[in-house]
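CHAIN AND CONFORMATION:

***
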Amino acid sequence: MRTFKMFLFAAAVACFASGCSDSDSNDNPTPGNSKAAVDVQMTEAALTAADVPAVNADDAKDWGENLNEFGFDFMHKLGESSNLVFSPFSLHSALSMTACGAGGDTLKEMAEVLNVSEDVNEIAKENGAMRLNLRYDGQTDGSKFEIANRIWVDQTAEVVPTFKTLMNDQFKAPLQIVDFVNYASDVIGIINEWVSNITNKMIKNLLTPQDVNSTTQMVLVNAIHFDGEWKYKFEKEKTYDKDFLANGKDKITVQMMNQSALVGYYENSDYKAIVMPYKGDKFSMIFILPNENDGLPKVATNLGQGDISKIVSESTQNDTIKVSLPKFKIESKLDQTTDTLIAQGIKQAFTGSANFSQMISNFDVHISKVIHKAVIEVDEEGTKAAAATAVAIAKNGADFNEKSFIADHPFAFALIHNASNGILFAGQYVGK
């Protein structure tokens, strides 16, 4: 893990319009009280360059490498063989918020898996700086990227003041006081409504009664939404039915989009890859197609941060590439997220030995569950994608071209932020 160095402007820690609150809501936290309900239209004022902390190119790339290493390790340990989409960025953001309330070996384990500093102030500053840079780049005409954080805390919990300050100032994650003991099901509805609105209704019902109950002390949530137009759109009249080898062997029919464009192209002995830019050139989608029809499991197992860097740096745009891609929509709720994070090395945080004394001072707590859900839809116009991550904290005890890219068999994909190469969404399409 490399050190992240930043030049922070004063505006980097300022609260933007309705993006954070100076104090918690102290009204009676019952579902019927409108003042206690969450403002689902949490937004920041339109950012200008002066509002965004300056992060040099090398530091942005370092941040992207650390994020991607976490994401690839998560994907490898997940071991999913079906259609999949998840957001390394959303998972990393929610867990980084949680890590800011940890101490001792709990913080050490989380920092190692997340590839971040063990200094919670550095974790928060790095996240705050890159969050604002992503939001600024996400205001590009044709490519919109929204990020929002929020924390719901039980009225009996005594939140450590320094933790609350970090959440407000850097993560722009205001605390909302609720009553999990008496109104857990109602709070679930409030959180789900907030997530649905932030993600333009792409992520619904993130939480269930199995995720949050009367023992819950806090729920930390990150929600993101991406809506990008291809720089070079596919013409709908060139979309037609075509065979696709699902799982590399079973023939099915898909709607295949077709175009010829100057997109980034890279190939090696194992796979071909293309880098398709979105309008505004702030974000791109990388598609990785194994050379063998049934080669995705092998390629996916070996994919790593080095592949992303090599594809981006060595891809050429000197030739017109014939591109054929299936239209697809994938929705994943990763029920095994908790087990996967434990396998990565975040172990103590999920046990009664967890140290979250820098988060809640009057109870011993642990992470009871991490819930992650993501959706991606790719068509002729571009890409819509959304993801949300919730970390529940509970009390202890509870053809005409020479080159072509014809994606007619399973492939992997990664939606990246160009300035950092950080992976915002990743997954695979196997056809069924």
The chain has a mean pLDDT of 87. DSSP finds nine helices and 16 strands in the chain. The longest helix spans residues 57-78.
